[in-house]
Amino acid sequence: MKIYNVVLLLLPIFIWSQNIKGHIENENQEPVSESSIEINDNQTIFYSDKEGNFNLEGISKFPVSITIKKMDYQDYEITLEENEFLNIILKKDTVKSIAGVTIKANKPLLKRKIDRMEFNIDKTALQNLNAWDILKSTPNILVKNEELSVRGNSQIIVTINDKKTLMTQEQLKQLLENTDGNNVSSVEVITNPPAKYEAQGSAIINIKMKQNVLSGYKGRISTRYTQATYAKGLIGTSQSYNTDKWQLTGNYNFVSGDYVRKNFDVVVFDKDKTRWESDMVRKTHAHEQHVYNFSGQYNLDSLSTVQFGFDGYNAPNNNGHYNVPTNIYNTENNQLQSYYLTSNKKKQYDNSFNSYLVYDKKFGNNNLTWTNNSSMKRFKENQDVETLLNFQGQPESKNRFANNSIQDISLYATQLDYRFSNDKFTLESGLKYSFVKNKNDLNFFDGTSGTLIQDLTKSNLFNYKENIFAGYISTEYKWKKWEMKAGLRSETTLIKTNSDNPVVENKTTRTGLFPTFYLMYNLKEDQQLGFSYGKRIDRPNYDFLNPSKSYYNLYSYFQGDANLKSTIIHNLSLTYTVKDWNFEAYYSYIKDPSMEISIQNPQTFETVYNYTNIDHGQNLGANFSKNFSIKPYWKLNLFAMGEYQENYFMGTDKILYKNDVFFYNANISTQITLDKAKTWDLNVSYVYNSKTIQGSFDISSSQNTNVIINKKMFDKRLEAGLIFNDIFRTNKNTISTRYADQNQYFKDYRDTQYFMINLKYNFGNQKVKDAKAGRKTDEQNRL
Question: Which residues belong to any copy of the Outer membrane protein beta-barrel domain (predicted)?
Fold first, then answer.
C-alpha cells in the first residue's frame, strides 16, 4: 500500500480535537454551577464550575449534540454545526405544591434500551436498602430459594460497573448485603447480552455504582444494626478524593454477627416403609468479616485514562457447632422406630482478592481499551462429624469422621477492545485470553477406632486448568425510526481436569459461536417496538467437576460430576414500550441445564447431593411494568409476569420425566415523600412468587413484605433509616420431589425476617461521586 493511502486511512484518527467553551446561568442571570453536560452518546460527562463556566474537550467532529441537565431546571438540548462560545440560560422546572407539601419526586425509572432494561433508583428510599435487597426489588429479577434468577433461569452473571464478582452465590449474597445502597445508582437487567460481553451465563445483572466526576473530597462513616433471630452489626467508612488528574475511592466494612438457617428434611423410603426426619438449625458465628475495595483513575490527558484498583473479601473464622437429630418412623403405624444424633463442628476460612489495570485511549470517534484482571482465592473448610446411633434391633454405637479441604484458585485475563462511534453507526470488536488454575485437596479421616486416621480411599486431589481464546465483532446502526444491533462472538475453550480418587482425567477443546441480534422501531417519540435473539453458554463452576465425595454426615454427601456439560441457552424476546408502560414476551430454550439435585439411595439410605445436568428446559412468558404518579408526592411501581416452565430430566429408573408449572410473580412498591424539605421518605414493597420448579423438584410459593422509613437531618449530612423486612415471615420455601423411588421434601428458612437500623454521617463535598471500578471477567464469577 502506498504511503499516501496509509495517511488517508489514518487521517480521521489523528485529526486535531477542539474544545467548546461556554457559560450557564439562570433566568435571573445567576451562574448555575455543577450542571452535567453530555455529548452525544459519549460516556464522558462534563460539569460547569462554580461560576457556571465549562470547557468541553476532545471534540473532533461536527455537528455535535449537547444535553445540559441540572436538578430543579429543565433539560437544555442544542446541536452545534460549528465551534462557537455558548451562552446557556436554564429555565426553572415547575414545582407543584399540594396540601402544603412541596414535591418533585425522584422515582425508580424503568428505561428500555435496545439491549437491556435499566432500573434507576438514584435518590429514592430504595437506596436505604443494601445492594442485595435492591436486587430483590428490581423488576425481572427473582429470588428462588435465595438464588438469583432471570426469566426462570439461575445461570446468570452479576457484575458491578461491568466488573465480574469473584464469589459463590452465598458469598455474593454476603457481599451485596454489606454494600451500601446509597452508592447504587441503577440496576441493568441484560436478558440478551451483546457480543462484547462474555458468552457465559443466560443473562447479566449489572449494578451501576455512582461514578467519580467532580473535584474535591467526601467521606462517610456508617453503622448498621440488624436484629433477626440473632444480632448482626456493621461499621464502615467510604472515602473519595479527586483532582483534575486523580480520582480515588476506597471503601471498608467490618461485619460481625451470627447467621442461622433452618431446615426440616424428610426422606421417605417407600420400599422399606420408613420416614427419616431431620431437624437442622445451623447457627454460624461470623464475627470477623472484612469487605474492602479501592478504585483509582488517572487522566494522562483529556483523551487517555488509566484505571486501577482491587477488592477483596476475608472471613478468617466462620464456625459453627450443629446438632442435628434424625428420627426414623415406620410409615405404616407412624411409630418412632430408630433415631440418631449428628454433631458437626465446622470451621471455614475464606479469602479472595481481585485486582485490575485498564488503559483507555480516545482518538476522534475511536476508542481503544486494554483491560487486565487477576484474581486469587483460597478457601479452607474443616469439619469433625460424630454420630450417635440408636437403631432398632442394634446396640447403641458411635461413628466419627473428619475432613479437611483446601481450594486454591488463580486466574489471569487480558482483553483488548476497539470502538468506533458516530451519530448513526457504532462498530465494536475485541480479543480476549484467560487462564484459570484450580487445585482442590480433600483429606478424609476415619475415627471409627477412637482416633482420627487418614482414609486414602475417601481422600482426593483434584486439578483443573482452563484456557479461553475469544474474539467478537458487533455493529449498531440508526436510521430514521429504526435501530439495529448485531454481533458475533467466538470462544475456544481448552479444559484439562485430573482427579486421583476416583481416577478421572478429561481433556476437551471446544469452539462455540454466539450470535446476537437486536432490532427496535420507534413508532412515535415515546413508543418503541423491539426484537432480540441471543445464544449463550453457562460453564460449570470449577469444583462442580470434582467427582469426589464430600460428606455432610454419615448418610449424606455432595458429589460433583467429572463429565458435567456446559449449558447452552437460546433467548428470544419481543418488547413494546409506550410512555411508562413496558411489555415483553419471551421464549428460552435451555440445553443441558446444570443444577444441584438430591437423590435418595434406597439400598444405603443415603441422600446424595449431586451437581449434574438434566436433559433440557424451556420457558415461555410475558411481563409488564409501569410507574404510576398517583400524587406528585406519591409514586407506585408495578411489575408482573407469568411464565410457563418445563424441565425434562432422566429419573433414577432411566425414564425421561417432564416437570412443568405456570409461574407468576408480582412486585409492587410505593414511595411517599412526607415533607416539603424532602427529609422524610417512606417506602413499602410487596413481592409474591408462585410455585416454581428446579429439575425434579417443586419449589413452593413465597412472599415478602418490607417497610423502609428514612430521615435526613443536619443539612442532610446525617441519615437514619429503619427497615422491617419479611414482616409476616412468609419468605420461605418447601422443596419436594415425588417420582419412581424418590419421595422427599425440605423446608428451608433463611432468617429473612428482621429489623435494621442504619446510621450514616456524610462529610466533605457529597457531590463527589465514587470512582468507577474496573471490569472483571466471567472466569472470576465462576470461582
Answer: 362-761
In this structure, is the dihedral angle defined by the CA atoms of residues 691, 694, 695 and 700, taken in order, positive or negative?
negative
Res. 215 pLDDT band, cuts 50 70 90: low
Q: Cα 710 vs. chain centroid, distance in angstroms?
A: 25
In what order do the strands lie in the sheet containing 53-59?
Answer: 53-59, 18-26, 86-90
> Scanning the structure block, which residue is given the C-alpha cell 482478592?
353
- d(C-alpha 332, C-alpha 330), whole Å: 6
Taking residue 472's Cβ as centre, other Cβ atoms within 10 Å add up to 23
Asked if 360 and 396 count as a contact pair (C-beta separation under 8 A), the reply is no
Buried b (16+ CB within 10 A) or exposed e, 736-760: bbeeeebbbbbbbbbbbbbebebeb
Give the mean pLDDT of 420-442.
93
Distance CA 172, CA 178 (A): 10
Q: Say whether 698 sits in a helix, a strand or coil.
A: strand
Distance CA 188, CA 204 (A): 8
Cell of 475: 455493529
Question: Residue 120 forms beta bridges with which residues?
Answer: 109, 186
What are φ and ψ of residue 731, in 5° steps?
-90, 75
Distance of CA 121 to the CA centre of its chain: 16
Q: How far apart are the first and last CA of the chain?
A: 48
Gyration radius from the chain CA atoms:
28
The label of the residue with cell 433452618 reads: 262
At 623, list the grid cell. 411481563
- Which residues have a Cβ under 8 Å from the Cβ of 553 and sit 6 or more positions away? 324, 342, 344, 385, 387
Dihedral angle of Cα 600, 603, 606, 609, to the nearest 10 degrees: -40
Q: How far apart are the C-alpha atoms of 160 and 117, rounded to whole Å?
A: 16
pLDDT, tens digit, 9 for 90 and up, residues 169-205:
666 776 777 676 777 888 888 888 888 888 887 788 8
* DSSP sequence for 605-622: TEEEEEEEE-SEEEEEEE
Residue type, 86: L
Instruction: Measure the CA angle with vertex 104, ends 102 and 110; round to 5°.
Output: 150
The C-alpha cell 451501576 sits at 208
* Gap between the Cα atoms of 688 and 686, Å rounded: 7
CA quadruple 758, 762, 766, 772: dihedral positive or negative? negative
pLDDT in tens, 77-98: 887 767 777 888 888 775 433 3
